[in-house]
From TrEMBL:
Keywords: Calcium, Membrane, Metal-binding, Repeat, Transmembrane, Transmembrane helix. InterPro entries: C2_dom, C2_domain_sf. The gene is Mctp2. The keyword Endoplasmic reticulum does not apply. It is a multi-pass membrane protein. This is MCTP2 protein. GO terms for biological process: regulation of neurotransmitter secretion.
Length: 204
């Protein structure tokens, strides 16, 4: 019940500088009766923002009254990566030793926000639900840890896809839960949900 809401949430997105990425933002209203209404949209051209500084943006909502105030910083990623199985970070003995030293007991209080390192190997899925009329699906996998999100490529027309990718995340909160969701790519439409698993970091 506010026309001037304050969220004060921070999200991390990962993009590659050789792509021209637009950040799409939608503002929705929810009246708690399973009814949602779009209050406006706006876009930010990420490639046009200055690097290594916090940019304060006041973005007017398109075709709707109101504006959105955001702080956006574009900076090189640290600790986050996507790689093939043959070149995963912990597979290199010297890199593994550096990581072990970084998180050893004597360095525990060096950076209170950098408390760990998670590596996830996404190998394959088996016997997925068929989402298309052809009896197949076009599955891809999304990994979310806190407000970090990474995803695999799509394997088209396959119910037993193999991704064989390695994802690394910096851990900022030991109570976070790794959520792995499989979706069916559906062209310009929102992807269809095929399944999900949640893994608390404290269980690893």
């Amino acid at each position: 019940k506010s026309a001037n809401p304050q969220w004060r949430e921070q999200f991390d997105f990962h993009y590659f500088s050789d792509r021209k990425d637009m950040l799409d933002i939608e503002v929705w209203r929810n009246d708690n009766k399973k009814h949602e209404e779009l209050l406006g949209t706006c876009q930010v051209d990420v490639t046009a923002l200055p690097m290594k500084q916090t940019n304060r943006l006041e973005l007017p909502l398109e075709k709707h009254p109101g504006s959105l105030l955001m702080l956006i910083a574009v900076a090189p990623c640290t600790g986050v990566s996507i790689s093939d199985l043959c070149v995963c970070p912990l597979g290199d003995p010297s890199e593994r030793q550096q990581i072990s030293q970084r998180y050893c007991i004597k360095n525990s209080f060096w950076d209170m926000k950098d408390i760990g390192f998670l590596q996830v190997k996404v190998l394959k899925a088996v016997d997925l639900l068929a989402a298309d009329f052809s009896g197949k699906s076009d599955p891809f996998c999304v990994l979310e840890l806190g407000n970090d999100s990474l995803q695999t490529h799509t394997v088209y027309k396959n119910l037993n896809p193999e991704w064989n990718k390695v994802f690394t995340f910096p851990i900022k909160d030991i109570h976070d839960v790794l959520e792995v969701t499989v979706f069916d790519e559906d062209g310009d439409k929102p992807p269809d949900f095929l399944g999900k698993v949640a893994i608390p970091l404290l269980s690893v």
